[in-house]
Description:
The chain is of the alpha/beta class.
Amino acid sequence: MSFGDLLALVDKTILNPWLTAPCVLLRVNRALSRKALNNGVNAKFDWSKEIILITGAAGGIGAEAAKKLAARGSTVVVLDVLPLTYPKPGNLHYFKCDLTNYDAVQAVGAQISKEIGDPTCVVANAGICRGKPILEATKRDIELTFSVNSLGLLWTAKTFLPSMAQRNHGHFLIIASQTGHLATAGVVDYAATKSAAIAIYEGLQTEMKHTYKAPAVRVSCLSPSAVNTKMFAGIKGPSNFFMPRLTPDGVGETIAQILWSGEAQNLLIPAFAYISPPTRALPEWLRVGMQDGGSQVMTELNPHKPLD
Ligand SMILES: NC(=O)c1ccc[n+]([C@@H]2O[C@H](COP(=O)([O-])OP(=O)(O)OC[C@H]3O[C@@H](n4cnc5c(N)ncnc54)[C@H](O)[C@@H]3O)[C@@H](O)[C@H]2O)c1
């Protein structure tokens, strides 16, 4: 290649604004979001000293996250209604707790504070899905879904965020769902509770900053699409390049990485899931078309029922 050819190549690539401008814009966008989500404040975490509480980590995604976080040496505290499904490492503490009962959550919070210390990181992961179309769901199905996924999340925040806000140190990570951004037939009540979880995430982020003057407290949200756990047993639909079925191990790793980054993040996984949030601002035919495409995915859903 001659020098002239090289200059022509540089002119057509690096110096071509049509190619470089989107990359520059993406980088600027990412930097602005990062700064905004972290309130422009640096925070340091010492993983040998942090106390990480994870709700709903007896099995599924939470269990994988708990094992990884404990393996790095942090003290890990698990709250769940079900017993642990894995051998308990020495630095992992388990408390049986039903998150729908506010008084019980407050009582276990006080016990943890006394016996272990105040959690500095919380992964609000517990959730249920009863897996019925809305006209077939019973009153109990719907009440339980909202009680765990929305109210239980708020009880978790009300119990464990005060000490973080007071110290202006900590990370509160909410596990929402792609369905919170775009509801799917068969899980309407579940989707509604996850929309609430996303609103709670956005609201807590701004309250930590403005109301509680705790800008260093990180508030994050992770919205996965379908994951191979007992919650979504029976789900149909091809696992393909764009929407691969996620594994509990992979999502557990993402949870651990978000905490270890020390930075607040708002993520959807896999990358193709980012198609969902903008649907509310796009023409309705696009949203309805996407929902039509997913209308059969939940018809044979048969989730386990931790609260029965
Ligand atoms: N599996 C998926 O496809 C998927 C997709 C997106 C988001 N999520 C979310 O990820 C989180 C973890 O789900 P998972 O797939 O690991 O399901 P899972 O059922 O395996 O784990 C959920 C855990 O929450 C616990 N739990 C339920 N109700 C509780 C209560 N009242 N008090 C205390 N613990 C309670 C359960 O006992 C269980 O151990 C949930 O919030 C779920 O909504 C899951």
